[in-house]
């Protein structure tokens, strides 16, 4: 390839990289509910739309909704008690709580905009206060806008990788850096959600120490060798207990 062509490629690549950084800076905004500055490239309405659109597919992946309406109503009652007793009620999000039929997978998760899920396999092992801890944690993900932040970060690294690939053969290296950054952010998200979950439990009249018991249940579910689905997307429960204890001490005086 001629030298002029290489120069053009490098210039185009640099322009794409510069655009990625400029866009990232322009997308910075402070979360009014957590005070944390985040890279966000969508509105709350868009988050809600993504969550509502994805919810049926997520339920289907876990065998659909649990058929007992009384248990579903119980999950709803605990979830909405947490929302109505906390800053969650001030947010624009539409909170729905889904009990999934999956009786094998120990898991709970939230989609952007307020769609929260818990599998029957996890639900069946929890007291009401422990359920509040799990749902409070998932509400924390919504308020923390963690999915929206991760989507924006993914978009940034994809654009950066494109620029690096155009300019030189660096795409795989940059892509690897991007994946590691998202993994690190995800672990921080979990710890932030744990702290918010503790706060929501206290505000709703639940004993926040039951959140520690949830971590012990998750650890026991893993057994000596098996890693449950919950742990594949969350830090090790043992590593979270000390942070939860600190959050309990921080908020118990409120």
Automatic annotation (TrEMBL):
GO terms for cellular component: membrane. The keyword Heme does not apply. Binds 1 zinc ion per subunit. Keywords: Hydrolase, Metal-binding, Metalloprotease, Protease, Zinc. Residues 72-246 form the Peptidase M48 domain. It comes from Flagellimonas flava. One of its GO terms (molecular function) is metalloendopeptidase activity. This is Peptidase family M48. GO terms for biological process: proteolysis involved in protein catabolic process. Its cofactor is Zn(2+). The keyword Iron does not apply. It holds the Pfam family Peptidase_M48. Belongs to the peptidase M48 family.
């Amino acid at each position: 390839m001629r030298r002029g062509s290489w120069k053009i490629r490098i210039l185009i690549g640099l322009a794409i990289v510069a655009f990625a950084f400029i866009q990232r800076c322009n997308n910075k905004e402070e979360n009014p509910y957590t005070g944390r500055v985040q890279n966000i490239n969508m509105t709350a309405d868009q988050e809600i739309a993504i969550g509502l659109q994805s919810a049926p597919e997520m339920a289907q992946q876990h065998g659909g909704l649990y058929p007992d309406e009384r248990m579903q109503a119980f999950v709803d009652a605990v979830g909405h008690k947490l929302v109505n007793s906390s800053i969650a009620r001030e947010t624009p999000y539409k909170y729905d709580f889904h009990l999934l039929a999956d009786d094998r997978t120990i898991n709970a998760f939230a989609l952007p905009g307020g769609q929260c899920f818990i599998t029957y396999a996890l639900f069946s092992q929890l007291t009401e206060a422990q359920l509040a801890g799990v749902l409070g944690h998932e509400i924390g993900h919504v308020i923390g806008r963690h999915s929206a932040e991760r989507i924006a970060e993914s978009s940034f690294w994809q654009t950066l990788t494109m620029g690096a690939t155009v300019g030189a053969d660096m795409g795989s290296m940059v892509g690897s850096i991007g994946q590691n950054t998202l993994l690190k952010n995800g672990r921080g998200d979990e710890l932030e959600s744990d702290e918010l979950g503790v706060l929501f439990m206290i505000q709703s009249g639940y004993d926040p120490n039951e959140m520690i018991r949830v971590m012990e249940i998750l650890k026991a579910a893993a057994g000596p060798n098996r890693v449950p689905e919950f742990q594949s997307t969350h830090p090790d429960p043992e590593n979270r207990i000390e942070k939860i204890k600190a959050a309990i001490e921080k908020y118990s005086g409120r």
